[in-house]
Amino acid sequence: MPTEFINNWFFQLTGNSPFLFAILDKQHHYVAVNQHYCQLSGLSREELVGRRDSDILGETFYHTLQPYYERALNGEFAEGDVILNEHRHHTCLHFCVSPLRDETGQITGLALHAIDTSERLHLANAIAEREDHFNQLSQLMSDGCLLIERNLVLSANPIAAQLLGFASPDDMTGQDLGQLLIDSRNNRPFGEQLAGLSNGKAYHCLTSQLCPVENVLTLTLKDTQVVGSPASLVVLRQPQTAQVQPEQVEQLIHTDPLTGLYNRHGFSRRLEQMINRQTPLVMLYLDIDNFKNINDSLGHHIGDRVLQEISQRLRQLLPENAVIGHLGGDEFGILLPDPIHAEIGEQVSRKIIALVNQPFDLMHFSKHLACSIGMVNYPGNGSDARLLLQHADTAMYEAKNRGRNRLVTFDETMNKEARMRLWLEIELQKALQNKGLEVWYQPKVSARDFSIHGAEALVRWKHPIEGYISPAQFIPVAERSGLIEQLGQVVMKEVFTTVKFWKKQGMLQGRVAINLSPQQFGNPNLIQYVSDLQRTTGVNPDDITFELTESAMLGENEHTIQMLNAIKKLGFALSIDDFGTGYSSLSYLARFPLDELKIDRAFIKDLETVPKQLTLIENIINLGKSLNMSVVAEGVETQQQAALLSNLNCDYIQGFHFFRPLPKTDLETILMKNFRGRY
Length: 679
Ligand SMILES: Nc1nc2c(ncn2[C@@H]2O[C@@H]3COP(=O)(O)O[C@H]4[C@@H](O)[C@H](n5cnc6c(=O)[nH]c(N)nc65)O[C@@H]4COP(=O)(O)O[C@H]3[C@H]2O)c(=O)[nH]1
Description:
alpha+beta; Beta-Lactamase; Alpha-Beta Plaits; 8-stranded mixed barrel; 7-stranded antiparallel sheet; flat; binds ligand C2E; EC 3.1.4.52; cyclic-guanylate-specific phosphodiesterase; EAL_dom
């Protein structure tokens, strides 16, 4: 090693470094050492240089390093760890050795550099000890103890596993605690709310159906952190037996705390008991129509009040021996044992529907509700509780399909339809994931000169095997399964982007209409979504109309008016679709800010043959016009219908006579041809 290098550079490079540096010759004598090395050995540089490593830092150190020195002198780079003087205070070093060569490439010695890792080792040991203490303590505890991050279980002690019915704490790792525990205040799984519980406060809860056991527990959360992220320590405790008697536990498990009725579990148990005793019975499965809208628009607290009120009304109406259950969400079950005659189910259902139709007084306004009921008989429609409940549920969905607010009695053909609906739901979900939906456009024409003026966007689904499936089939499935939100967003995104393009090219006159389902309209988040989408796509809201059916506006409540005003405020137009088919009251025409009225095709169908129909349509057109609305007639299939509507001063016409719904590119070809013809 050239001395001038050592004198010039080595000390400058390594002088104030927190690392230990040493250069050794082939016999392991120190040639140079830096300041930090001197401090560690307790000797000056002069005392160290020329001495052998083994004489300075002790045998252990030397014996550990010697093989590495040999490897370095053989041309290798090597690194390892060593602990110096294993007394009370260890000094640990992480070191590297590498060969040093002269200008000819001959190895003349080696360089050693190392870092003191004592502090790190000390901390790692302390953490391991703490973890061991924590683990031992949690094993000794008689309460369940869990560590969760974003509701997911990171670790649990054996008691926690036992209280929740899992075979071992390991089985709980990764489980969502928010779904395992039901909040006894509202009988719903805690879900996301778990993170928002007050620090240190005890909450009553029940284990959910995801847990292998039923238990009543108290839950306490303490905020903590896991690698800097917010986490919680959770303590689960079984209420003292002195405070809660077994029968109280039993009652808690089978009762819905919100309504005081049987919960799903308790209701099923009562049903099983009756089946075991072979008691003939009628079961009604009741679902409140569009209840989600109440929760979404008015909040869960109002939704809860409605459910309580319904429970109370049912209690008052039903006979003493009836068993009533709140099966979850907006679903209720009713058992009528030993029916005195065959029509009892129909009679009671009619009364229940009338009762639910009575207005609900909700603080500042009253709301009308409707309900759909499915009915089964035991022993006729099934031999066990699970099957009976399933069939009653199927019949209830059929009631919804047939227009809601009615009773439907189960029959076997419905099972096939239910399976079909399930298939459609699964396939539709896949189509949404794989971008398998298209938007087609049906042009509308001006009733004056039959030139294209606007269009209606209609979703199309081409199934990879079944081919095109009608929206009339899959839209109701999408509405019931909640997929309509996603489907609606796909359509809106596509239409906004296309309309922006068409308008930029000057290809299309008039607006493009988008259908909104009652579920979409009922969700207050719609406004934010539409507003964001309008901003990002840059579409002029004046070029879009939202079409709503009368049933979407059913109720004429504050929410409807607020939503309609909010859509109008963003600059979009509003149209009432299928006019004349749904709602008996016309007062909404004056109260709601509507721009367009679409006469349903049911009125157009008999236009040529039923003379009174012509008078009816003329009056609808006049009514719309007097309220400053433009009037569209849909479902026009013949030249004669078109001519009659034109004479009646209808504004626009839509129907197969002019155009069927077309893929975007086909319509673009037509629009381009018209566009060129114009200029
Ligand atoms: N017989 C006959 N039918 C005609 C004629 N002209 C148009 N139609 C059909 O009438 C329906 C008009 O749409 P709608 O009343 O809003 O009724 C729509 C609408 O309620 C719903 N829908 C379609 N696309 C969407 C969508 O993107 N979102 C939502 N929420 N619903 C949609 O599905 C329904 C059915 O849609 P489609 O099968 O495309 O059926 C379309 C259209 O093809 C005619 O001259 N004769």
